[in-house]
Amino acid sequence: MVRGTTFLGALLRQGASVLASTPQDLPSEVDDPEPVAAVRRMGAMAATEVAPPTDSLMIRATRYAVLLPLAYRILVLPVVWLWLLVGFGATPELTAITWVGILANVAGVAWVLRVPDRRGRLTWRLLCGDVLFAVVASLLFTITVPPGLFWLDGWIPLLYLTGTVALWTICRGIVAGLLVAAVGIALEGVTLWLGPVAQFGRIEIAGLVVAAGMVLVAVACGVGFLVLVGLATRLALAIGMRLGQGAEQARMERTLHDTVLQTLEAIALTDDGPGQLARVRDVARSQAGALRRSLRASDPPDGLAAELATLATEMAREGLRAELAISDVGDDQLSEVRRVAVREAAREALRNTIKHAGTQEVVVRMEERDGGVAVITRDHGVGYDEYTRPPGFGVSESMKARLAEVGGWCQIESRPGNGTRVTMWVPR
């Protein structure tokens, strides 16, 4: 795959393997949420640059494209065989060809779904074996079919052949599809020459034209499948990239809010006096470490209880006395993303206590609840009216949104004069 090649051109030349390419940037027209003309959007997707695929999962997933032609034959061949059997009669040889072909396609589907194909060798063998079976089936049919059933029963090998053409077009591109189609048309001519046909006249020529048209339609269907799936994949990638960038921006905003902004606020609220400079330094050092861990994602998986203990120590440097009540709930089974989400939400809850509660004491409790882990912070500060207090970034964006992203929730209960309780829960 040559860097700089347009996506549509590479897709038509090389087939489904190009679907695994993941571009770094896509034109704004691709994922523009505003109404854009379909031709303009598809043109932008088709003209995007193609880079060699690097994600092994995407590479393996593109090989599932072979399932469409296989499924087509598994569904169509029994129907046509039953029509021939009931209406006109089918020879034992044709019945054997039909059901061996069906079983071979079923085995191919099972093979593709169950056996990992990391280097594409299995797919190549499947393609070559499919061509061989189509040729053998057509020749065997030709030398065994009675003259009266030649034109009717010939639908079975022809339909199998169209599946072969579509298979090669999807997997190897339009050039490979046309080459297999040319082989198929030549094979149909050979069957007419070897078959029980008295003379080669207008009817025989018409039959050959119909067969050629059907294999060319199979090429067109394969190309249409590639284009539709390819453009849909590009659109999905563009939307995923936009949503991922938005999520990453929100994560960075929360990180900065929970570290840099909190430190600046702490410095701004600090009064001049003995020991205040040392306290500001402790706060800045603590927040610098938290920011570094967040950016590098290097926190060791010690469990949520250990991280809450570390968090309580950090808050103590800022003057908040946090009493821990932690039970043995197997918090080390939490995934890293959920553990980080609860920890940072608890950090924000404790920061809100420092800034708004008017108290220097809080209780932090961790317990098992509803198949997950809950962390509750409770203070006996001034509290507030939940219905009149304007929503702040810490509550609406940093805590609730952070936990919702990992399948959890955050509930805040507060009344004036009765303090505040914050309950944070995540599933295991």
How large is the count of helical segments? Answer: 14
- Spatial sequence of strands, sheet with the most strands: 1-2-3-5-4
Radius of gyration from the alpha-carbon trace, in angstroms: 33 Å
| Overall form | elongated
Order of helices and strands: HHHHHHHHHHHHEHEEHEE
Please mark out the parts with pLDDT under 50 across 5 or more consecutive residues, or reply none: none
Helix-strand makeup class: alpha+beta
Mean pLDDT: 80
Main β-sheet description: 5 strands, mixed
Alpha-carbon distance between the two ends? 43 Å
Q: How many runs of DSSP E, i.e. beta strands?
A: 5
Strand portion: 5-15%
**Share of residues in helices:** 55-70%
User: In terms of quaternary structure, what is this?
Assistant: single chain
Description of the structure:
- The chain is an alpha+beta fold.
- Helices cover 64% and strands 9% of the residues.
- The chain contains 14 helices and 5 strands.
- Helix 9 packs antiparallel against helix 10 and helix 10 packs across helix 14.
- The longest helix has 68 residues.
